[in-house]
Here is the input.
Amino acid sequence: MERILVVDDDRGIQDVLDIMLSREGYQVSTADDGAAALDIIRKKQFDLVITDLKMPRMDGIDLLKGVKETAPGTAVILLTAFASGETALAAMREGAYDYVEKNFNVDDLLSIVRDALEKREADRLGKPLPHPEGDGARYFGTMVGRSKEMQKVYTLIGKVADTPANVLILGESGTGKELVARAVHGNSARKTKPFVAINCGGIPENLLESELFGYMKGSFTGAFADRAGLFEVARGGTIFLDEIAELPVILQVKLLRVVQEKTIRRIGGSEDIKVDVRIISATNQDLHDKVRRGEFREDLYFRLNVIPIHIPPLRKRREDIPLLVQHFIEKYAREFGKEVKRISAYALELLLRYPFPGNIRELENIIERSIALESSSIILPENLVIAEEAKGAAAAHGFPGEFPEDGVDLNRELERFEREIIRKALDKARGSKTKAASLLGVSFPSLRHRLEKLNMENGDGEGK
Here is the structure.
């Protein structure tokens, strides 16, 4: 049983953490300040110390230094109501595992505790941390996610992969539609044959036909030799037609013939060529609406949409964000030769609150740039480059007034939003903080600390 020492001069926080951690099976001790904590640590071994930053006699940073001198194998998590980038960086440099605000989410803090203890054990044994690759609940091919929404996608892929049915993948831009297409192909009997992808909206109409169907020598200026199209290249395998909604009407007719008769004819050719190809299409548009407006052939729509797979946007699967973040950290740390291992809890909280209009592609870009800028082993909030992304999010979500040229202070806007939500909860609870905490889905101590942090303790309801 792992031993955890909780250090805080607030008995309310002590009690909350004691109950929360004891329920998880940890053996918990408490101390009121850093000096008392060090006395306890000299007499008893602990696996983890969770300490407040601001305390009488000895603050959290000094306690951290003392722990590292007295018991260097003990992990330390700093807990504070006042987030500061400089303090966070100082804490990480002194060897803290993480830095968490007092208005923590219980599940998030427990996850950080488990990760800290897991890393401590791995360091003690001299073994690398276990990598989740291959964990069916988290990974499927190159896709990352364990949310219920993604589990449904994984299950559907498993059911349809080994059938000959055409698949239509639907989802917003940046959700990973090509990864789904590759997963379908990779789990089918065609997996040893080619997977050929083409963006129907990224190639001019006069070139797209020759790319898809090929051409014969002399069929047009510049056709100096016969050339096979992508349908021939993909023979026996899968062709992925991304942004199928952008396919010109004239080519929709030719594609319908391929789907129905399993043959193609090269430009300038007179012979039909048999092609055994599975077609997977994708779009971020409402294809049914385009059919209704006469912009997409209905018969082709039904031929392509035999099995629809809907990919949820990232804002609908937020529990996957930590997994995706860690996945991209490992990817770009290797690529850039950086020692960045993970993201701080507060930085992750900012990402969890962000709407991600650009979905997974946007998240990947944010982490890539953050890795490039980060000089420590952990991504801190100030190195999350999201000002430009926030502009798009603000436009999509009704940000009031003109958006500043240099972006926004995300922390301030989140604080403003938090203040507004708490006021509404207190109004609905008629001033009862206990009822308001229940409405907000947080504990009473957590709400109390939020009120103190936002200077809302007076004048916003004093009911019990």
